[in-house]
Write a structure and sequence with these properties.
Rossmann fold; about 260 residues; alpha/beta
Length: about 260
């Protein structure tokens, strides 16, 4: 099922009577980031993915996004689909959205947080994102994306999956730069959600051994601050763990969901 909610493209697979899972992609991707994982889970769960505003097929609008507006969009999807007892699965920036949504809405059955963190940007990170926005205006998205891919994927994956990386790059270069810069702005301005960790529902934290963007230790520390958490480290994977290790990612989710 494919539907439009307030300018947001939503994609649903599976039986609507089964446990709803909402998958929130990271920056600068779209909902297809989750395709391989959802394919392994759709027979047993109601899987909902969507394009965050400004990415994929969703509307771009003014591009002045905040994490709050992203959560507004998520809340609208949950309401429009009349979902109950939702489990959120957020990757990287999608994890930021999931964590802030958990603070605001406080009605989720569980959280699955992949390659993400609770801390807001320090000054160095804010300046780095501001420079990225400036460089995109001056040079376009491609140089920024090349640097990002170098950090986001392991060298072996980039060498072995050159065609897949090229297709992914082509897709992202088709997105409106306003949406990409809007996401950078939203991440610059996001709040710290660390204080909410003591009040989270059961949570699965998935990290990657070779994540050069958010280190495995960072997520292990987060897990230690949660009352009911499960921690999984995927081996020989970089930041985008659901692409590099989709079977292992889905297996970790399934093991957590049947507990």
């Amino acid at each position: 099922m494919h539907t439009l909610t307030n300018g947001i493209q939503v994609f649903c697979k599976g039986d609507t009577n089964k446990q709803p899972l909402i998958f929130i992609h990271g920056f600068p991707f779209d909902h297809t980031l989750w395709d391989e994982v959802i394919e392994q889970l759709k027979d047993d769960f109601y899987c909902i993915s969507y394009d965050i505003r400004g990415f994929g097929e969703s509307e771009v609008g003014h591009g002045q996004y905040t994490m709050e507006s992203y959560v507004d969009d998520l809340e609208a999807i949950i309401s429009e689909l009349d979902l109950r007892q939702v489990i959120l699965c957020g990757f990287s920036m999608g994890g930021y959205i999931a964590l802030r949504a958990n603070e605001r809405l406080q009605n989720f059955k569980a959280l699955i947080l992949a390659n993400t963190t609770t801390t807001s940007d320090d000054d160095e990170a804010k300046l780095k994102r501001a420079k990225a926005m400036h460089d995109i205006d001056k040079e376009g998205v491609e140089p920024f994306l090349d640097n990002f891919f170098t950090a986001a994927f392991t060298q072996n994956y980039r060498q072995e999956q050159q065609e897949k990386i090229a297709l992914l790059k082509e897709k992202i270069l088709g997105f409106d730069p306003v949406g990409i810069k809007g996401a950078l702005l939203a991440m610059i301005s996001r709040t710290d959600t660390t204080q909410s960790l003591e009040n989270t529902p059961p949570a699965l934290l998935i990290t990657a051994s070779d994540d050069a963007i958010i280190e495995a230790k960072t997520m292990k520390d987060l897990a230690s601050k949660m009352e009911d958490s499960h921690f999984v480290e995927l081996q020989e994977s970089g930041h985008v763990s659901m692409l590099q290790k989709p079977q292992e990612f889905a297996k970790a989710m399934r093991s957590f969901l049947i507990i």
